[in-house]
Amino acid sequence: MRLTGKGIFGPPSDRPEAIATLRRCLDLGVNLIDTAESYGPYVSEELIAEALSPYPAGLVIATKGGLDRPGPDQWATNGRPERLRVALDGSLRRLKLERIDLYQLHRFDPAVPEEEQFGFLQHAQREGKIRHIGLSEVSVAQIQRARTFFQVASVQNRYNLVDREWEPVLDYCDREGIGFIPWFPLQAGDVGREGPGYYPRLVRRLTNRNTSIARIAKRHGATAAQIALAWLLRRSAVMLPIPGTSNRRHLEENVAAAGIELSREDVDALSQKAAAGPA
Predict the structure, then answer these.
(1) pLDDT tens digits for 8-66?
(2) Rounded distance, CA 246 to CA 241, Å?
(3) DSSP symbols for 197-257
(4) Catalytic site residue 199?
(5) Model confidence over 140-171: pLDDT tens digits?
(6) Considering its fold, how many domains does the chain have in total?
(7) Which of 19, 110, 179, 216 has the fewest Cβ atoms within 10 Å of its own Cβ atom?
(8) Which CATH number goes with the domain that contains 7?
């Protein structure tokens, strides 16, 4: 999402860096890249194809449909089957794929019957355009209803160290073996404004919200952001964090979080603080 312009709209301010960041993902062993038709719109998918196509074996490109973009920072739910078909076919074309490994309904559209939205995804999978189907910002009940139409491979809900509203959904996914993809995994403000001071601001925000993070980060020689990601990875075996970035330095910092081994005491301290909610 952060590879686009301000307001998640239009092209990036530094296109060469965006391309280099995507290619650096492969060097670092990243094997899942999550995007959406609405990021730009279209911009993120086009950049991914330009930088990485033909894709190496084992790289999963996940994308989403179901949101229109009237303008910068504007999002409109649209789950009409005819609109979803345009979105899916466009994503296939832009990503230069014959089949999308993971296609996710970006949001349920309350103005469209659920069975029509589920039915479209079911039909597209049977057509061979989608391998696996995922959902985003859904309740346990919605997941259960969707599973009467198709196997739900993943759920992408907002979840992080200090925002655990969707904890029951994570627990359900954990029990059922459904991948859980937390968006906004770092609970940082200023989405899309990743200027030179972005990560220092993020460290301060996380540290202010959870004093345990500062102590644990210092002990591991890590940043607060890395500890937040490491905690997510320890939280569940089905967890697939997707921290966004627009440059290689932040990408490398994020990926390095996977190598941090938090102790049981670390995890317990962070979890207890998180349970108290934001400051």
Answers:
(1) 999 999 999 999 999 999 999 999 999 999 999 999 999 999 999 999 999 999 999 99
(2) 16
(3) THHHHHHHHHHHH-HHHHHHHHHHT--HHHHHHHHHHHH-TTB------SSHHHHHHHHHG
(4) no
(5) 999 999 999 999 999 999 999 888 999 999 99
(6) 2
(7) 110
(8) 3.20.20.100
Domain boundary residue, one of 156, 171, 202: 156
Structure tokens that stand for 124 in this block: 């597209």
Residue ending a domain, choose from 156, 173, 203: 156
Q: Quick one: average pLDDT of 221-233?
A: 94
Query: Residue 103 forms beta bridges with which residues?
Result: 63, 133
The letter for the amino acid at 5 is G
**Catalytic option among 39, 103, 159, 172:** 39
Report yes or no on 174 lying in a domain: no
pTM score of the predicted model: 0.89
Residues 73 and 195 in one domain: no
CA distance 161 to 185: 8
Rounded CA gap, 213 and 227, in Å?
7
Structural domain including 129 reads 1-156
For residue 136, list its beta bridge partners.
156
The answer on 225 and 146 residing in a single domain is: no
